[in-house]
Design brief:
- The strands form three sheets. This protein has an eight-stranded mixed β-barrel, surrounded by four helices.
- It contains 16 helices and 16 strands.
- The chain is 42% helix and 21% strand.
- It is an alpha/beta fold and 417 residues long.
- Bound molecules: guanosine-5'-monophosphate (2 copies) and manganese (II) ion.
- One guanosine-5'-monophosphate (G) binds next to β13.
Length: 417
Amino acid sequence: MPQRRLLVLDDDPLIGRTIQFIAQGVGLQARYTPDPGEFFAILAEWEPTHVALDLVMPGMDGVEVLVQLAQRNCRARIIITSGMDGRVLDAAGRSGVEHGLDILGVLPKPFSASMLRALLDQAPGTAMAELPALARGTPTDGASPRQPGEISAETLSRALENRQFSVVYQPKVGCDGGMLAGFEVLARWHHPTLGDIPPDRFIAPAEHHDLIDELTAQVLDQSLQWFARHASESRPLVLGDPVTLSINLSARSLRSQQLVETLTSRCQAHGVDPSRIVLELTETSAMEDPVASLDMLTRLRMKGFRLSLDDFGTGYSSMLQLVRLPFSEIKIDKSFVMGVSRSGEARSVIRSIVDLGHSLGLQATAEGVENAETLHYLQDIRCDLAQGFHIARPMPGDRALLWLQRHTEKIADSIRG
Ligand code: G
Ligand code: G
Ligand code: MN
């Protein structure tokens, strides 16, 4: 590992020196200054890999230092320290992330040596950037894709003509007992020369170029065929409800008068009852035009489809509108779920969403479950379903079937005890 260098800025010499010694103890070079002017001078000349920054100092506030670090394009990994309330620290951390800084985390005072060591040793990619950004507001499904020019209409329609899109399936299981509840279908695009292109890059352009309905149709046909042939046979696995198939719908599609007809006729053609299909809509998108949405969603519900509110917690919808719309499931956004292990706030948000969902008679699903600890927490708070890498990654149809077979055996074993 190349030599790591930590620069500490803190108006309290006792704390500043302590951080310096702990860092030296785990093999970092470390320097300390109580003076912001000197801090920026050392920063320029010494180029530290890590920075520990006190938020509240006389003469200069830490947020101002963060802004200046961002303006200087500082690439160091930053640890924020302060005696302030944890919420204030978190907010400052998020503000740093939104300024493009690499915020490793926050260190509340008083802190222990082991807390600081854990932060310093944190692997890249586990930083605060993953925390729910309260003010992020980047709808994945909205009317204004961020980079509509990136993938052209021609490229997309050729890909659709040439059937370059395939689908993968990610299981959803009961939080309690692990029974299979259903699969979510996710589109994949393998371009012959450009390689794999993620949905983040093709869904918004497909909406923008009015090709999303064709994409949805292809996703539907592939997944209904697979589902009709295989997954519906897994019925005995499920206590109560049979296995469902969740399909992501774009808000755009709600404007199309053909939507209800397309969905029902495809289901009929494949012999799948609409009650087995869950249509996932993102929170932001469902609220784009609440009146038209209410109309369309009600028609879909009357045909028997279930509706899921996807990425819940990231949008700005009012509770009132939520109550008005006929959803059957609420999916807690993975940005909260992935924070269960480190953030008490994330846990509170999840618990409230589960309670809210239940009080409205909705099933609560957590997506982005990446470890056993998170699953246990979800069990504790009586969340219904879980989805995430800890259970299984999205898989092609044949692999999903193998997974299901192994999963079934595991559950049967655990029941036999
Ligand atoms: O695997 P993941 O990277 O698959 O998906 C990223 C995002 O793309 C998810 O938020 C998901 O809702 C969206 N997405 C994936 N497949 C489809 C699809 O077939 N239609 C729509 N509208 N969105 C999809
Ligand atoms: O927004 P949409 O809910 O439809 O999101 C599905 C997306 O989440 C897909 O891109 C899928 O690959 C991704 N995903 C599913 N489980 C996990 C997980 O446990 N961790 C992470 N980071 N992403 C996940
Ligand atoms: Mn989804």
